[in-house]
């Protein structure tokens, strides 16, 4: 460096961007046990080797995984993991390829966690399952200098036969609920009719008023035929004598 100065200075100076850190190895050892940057750093030729580490959040897709659930249903699930490197030294010194290792671990964790859940739990508890996977990944990748920010389950695919069976089950449940509601309505209507009949028995004139109200309703509908109800007491008064 001294002999070829000032030409060698251009080979010694390196620029590290704001979102990057440089881990410098000098004669095989990490310099100062910490990453350098951002800005301008100096690297000695022949003795120093440095690795750039990107600290930005990485989006890693989990490929479609075929999973056998707890209730013996075969499903296909994929997802996405958001993580970033918080320790550049650990990500370089403790693992060969930190991104590949994180992705493979995410695939394995997804299969292991979903294998302990039933299909209904997977469909209804995605957020809780994703939070559990995130916690497991964060604990496992901490020694690699990784911080897992978020895990999302994107899609859950089930066989077509299972979809038809679930649709039939849902339709049967809706029909049963509709019948229960109809029966409840009939019961309430019968109780209302019972109370109305008791009122009419106590006040016979109320029945005549009900007749008149019915006639008024029929007249407003512009019907050509009007039905006059015949009081039952008239029939009782004209019964033939034997």
Automatic annotation (TrEMBL):
Keywords: Membrane. It holds the Pfam family Band_7. It comes from the Eukaryota. The keyword Transcription regulation does not apply. Residues 11-170 form the Band domain. GO terms for cellular component: plasma membrane. Transmembrane segments: none annotated. SMART domains: PHB. It is found in: Membrane. InterPro entries: Band-7_stomatin-like (IPR043202), Band_7 (IPR001107), Band_7/SPFH_dom_sf (IPR036013), Stomatin_HflK_fam (IPR001972). The keyword Membrane applies. Belongs to the band 7/mec-2 family. This is Stomatin like 3. The lineage of its organism: Eukaryota, Metazoa, Chordata, Craniata, Vertebrata.
């Amino acid at each position: 460096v001294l002999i070829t100065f000032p030409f060698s200075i251009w080979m010694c100076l390196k620029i590290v961007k704001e979102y990057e850190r440089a881990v410098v190895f000098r004669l095989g050892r990490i310099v100062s046990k910490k990453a350098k940057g951002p800005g301008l750093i100096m690297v000695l030729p022949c003795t120093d080797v440095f690795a750039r580490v990107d600290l930005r959040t990485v989006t890693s897709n989990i490929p479609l995984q075929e999973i056998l659930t707890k209730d013996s249903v075969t499903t296909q699930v994929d997802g996405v993991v958001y993580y970033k490197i918080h320790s550049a030294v650990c990500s370089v010194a403790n693992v060969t390829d930190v991104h590949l290792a994180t992705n493979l671990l995410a695939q394995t964790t997804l299969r292991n966690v979903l294998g302990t859940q039933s299909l209904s739990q997977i469909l209804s508890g995605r957020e809780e399952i994703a939070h559990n996977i995130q916690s497991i990944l964060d604990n496992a990748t901490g020694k690699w200098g990784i911080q897992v920010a978020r895990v999302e389950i994107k899609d859950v695919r089930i066989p077509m036969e299972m979809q038809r069976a679930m649709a039939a089950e849902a339709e049967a449940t809706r029909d049963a609920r509709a019948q229960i509601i109809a029966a409840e309505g009939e019961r309430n209507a019968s109780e209302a009719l019972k109370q109305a009949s008791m009122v009419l028995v106590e006040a016979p004139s109320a029945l005549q008023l009900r007749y008149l109200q019915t006639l008024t309703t029929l007249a407003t509908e512009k019907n050509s035929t009007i039905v006059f109800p015949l009081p039952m007491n008239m029939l009782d008064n004209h019964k033939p004598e034997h």
